[in-house]
Amino acid sequence: MNLYGHAGQWLMMDCGITFNSPLCTEAESKTSGLHKHDVVAADPWFISQRKEQLAGIVITHAHEDHIGALPYLWRRFKCPVYTTKYTAEILRRKLARDGQGDNIPIIEIESGERVDIGEFNVEWMLITHSLPEPHAFVIRTPAGNVFHTADWKIDLAPVTDKPFNAHAFKRLAKQNILAMVCDSTNATREGHSVSEQQCYTGLKQAVANATGRVVVGCFSSNIARLITLAKIAKETGRYFALFGRSLQNTVGAAKATGHWPDDLPVLDAFNAGYLLPKEVLAVATGSQGEPRAALNQLAKDTYRNVSLDEGDLVIFSSIVIPGNETSIENLLKAYKARKIQTLMADDSELPIHASGHPCQEELKQMYEWVRPQIAVPTHGEAEHLQANADIARLSHVPISLTGLNGDLFILAPEVKVMKQAVRSGRIALQQS
User: Fold this and answer.
1) 100 pLDDT above the threshold of 90
2) pLDDT single digits (tens) 111-136
């Protein structure tokens, strides 16, 4: 949940959630032993007290950590929401489940459009990530122009949408970008991120060598990975199924907006239990060990549609998000006890997972193309933010500003950081 302020108005960029988390930082939770909550969001107190000054909310893409809190929190804001067709479809499906229907005014924007939202002129710039229609933004005001990257990577073969277009970002060097607010998730990683298309060979090899059922755990919002797996199922003589409501919802939205290929059928999960083991390739929710997700139910043999047997294979086409190590370890132990094979991304010789975030070489390139006066690293822990700031300095960005949630970054007319100027924190939206 990012806020940009100018001339007495505010613009919100994203409104996301996290899962199975405490109402504090991960470091604090380890020492305090505080209870974890199913769904957690950023505390919106500051902007809720100023909702008449909130010109609008822009959702950059459809990942839960960017969109998931909106159905819960919009009543506190009651302003227009701006996003693209696919993300709007995901949001409307969430609202329908929560009984809000058409209550929220959602304004659909096309790539490349420039829209006036109160005091802010906002330009949508198509970028590459791990799902359809991710965008970066130029936010223009008389006080200065800000380039907000949101989540991104440089991917020349992203599976969904168009390949990364460097020319669009090189042009920003001539547009006097005051500040670049940039994704830091992989700032500690050297080199270049793996292209989404590179996962195809490793995943196909693993599936082709399997003799029993194959179940793949991956993030349910990763339409590119789902399309790759559906193609592999077709090529290896297997039926493609989805285990978990969020996966079914994601593919449904992709079909409704033209992002799912017509020649890739999806089998109803109920029918997967009637197939021979060698005919099944399914994707399941719960790659982070979530207790109620399909992978956990399959490990406990409580999933209603299918039972896994000795010799079946579970592939984790995902990373281990820090904080989830114990949950995933317990999941692997449960499969091992039943003699069900597992393959983790780190143990695969070929890539079977690709991050959606830029590594160091990509960050360097973007800074050199855009040439901002100020770098504001975001989206990461302290070490990631500092690594991003270091890269910005090496890329000849004059000023780098790092801080914490609740800090107010003054970008113009003077440049400074007001520490803990705004009340921040986390609130529970759903509890166990």
Assistant:
1) no
2) 999 999 999 999 999 999 989 999 99
DSSP string of 10-66, one letter each residue: EEEE---EEEEE-SS-HHHHHHH-PPPEEEEEE--HHHHTTGGGEEEEE---S-HHH
CATH of 2-191+356-430, one of 3.40.50.1820, 3.40.1670.10, 2.60.40.420, 3.60.15.10: 3.60.15.10
Residues of each domain in the chain carrying CATH 3.40.50.10710: 196-347
Strand partners for 140: 121, 145
Q: Which residues is 99 bridged to in the sheet?
A: none
- Residue 39, pLDDT above cutoff 90: no
Question: Are 212 and 311 spatial neighbours (Cβ–Cβ below 8 Å)?
Answer: yes
Contact call for residues 273 and 307 (beta carbons, < 8 A): yes
C-alpha span between 148 and 378 (Å, rounded): 10
Q: Which residue in 335, 334, 195, 207 sits closest to 282, CA to CA?
A: 207
Distance CA 299, CA 307 (A): 9
Task: Tell me how far apart the alpha carbons of residues 14 and 31 are, in angstroms, rounded to a whole number.
Answer: 30
Report the half-sphere exposure of 26 (CA within 13 A, side-chain side): 11
CATH of domain 196-347: 3.40.50.10710
Asked whether the whole model's pTM tops 0.70, one would answer: yes
